[in-house]
Amino acid sequence: SWVEFGPAWRYGMTRMGSGLLLTGRPLVESAMLVQYLGFGGAGIYGRAIGIATIACARIPSYLTRPLYPVLSRLPAGTPAQRRAGTLVVQSILWLIVPMAAVMLALAEPIIRMLYGTRWLEATPLIPLALLLTGLSALNEALGIMQLASGRQRACLVADLVASGGLVVALPVLLPYGVLTYLGGAVVAQVASMGVKVVDLSRAEALDFGRLVGVAGMPVLASACLLAVSAPLWLRLPVAFWSPLWIGIFSVGFGVAYVVLLR
Asked: 188-194: long-range contacts at Cβ-Cβ below 8 A with a sequence spacing of 24 or more?
């Protein structure tokens, strides 16, 4: 009967809607980038986003998706769900912020190492690309928390906000340059994340107060480490940064980061 089948149907339709938005968004973006920037400019943009994805989105994606069965078993609106949801978002923040900081400091050497000198024009795009992909990773985690809490409609609304912002930013901001467009895409992600945070807070699935309290810690620690290590990544020539030294810097940065957080 429809009474029994209706909830499953509505859930399936909302998830199909979100899936279509998430799948169609990159296709629209790629087509518009090629139209306004040409294949060369679109390739440079793709390299910047690709490097930022390695730092900010790849590992969090692997971590959050398997957590859905665990989160969905927690009773909705309970302290256990709030603690778990807040811990998930906090863990992603504490993970991606130092990785983004290292990528920001060594953007040009890393681009040289991974892609070669022909793609160095992607270097100025790295800061905003890191911010965009970091917000995307947080949005993905918040979306999984919404699904685990039975908030799939609110998740669809947030996806509509992100996709709508992108559709507006492409023709309006892209003619003014890639950096301007990236700024608009960041604003769209922030708006989408705001919808998800408000929804989860109202559903008592997220402890917003605690999250705000701990969110500044990884940012402050990474900023301090960037300032202390600035003589290295600002003054040493790019040729110095071989893969070995990039690895040593990354490991040292990570160890110091953990020590500061403790």
From this structure: 188/161, 188/162, 188/164, 189/132, 189/135, 189/136, 189/139, 189/162, 189/165, 190/135, 191/161, 191/162, 191/165, 192/139, 192/158, 192/159, 192/161, 192/162, 192/165, 193/135, 193/138, 193/139, 193/142, 193/158
Q: What is the pLDDT of residues 158-217, one digit of tens each?
A: 888 888 888 888 889 988 989 999 999 999 999 999 999 888 888 888 887 788 777 888
Q: Which residue has the tokens 């993970």?
A: 95
Whole-number Å distance between alpha carbons of 22 and 69 = 22
Q: Which residues are CB-contacts of 113 (< 8 A; sequence separation ≥ 6)? A: 241, 243, 246
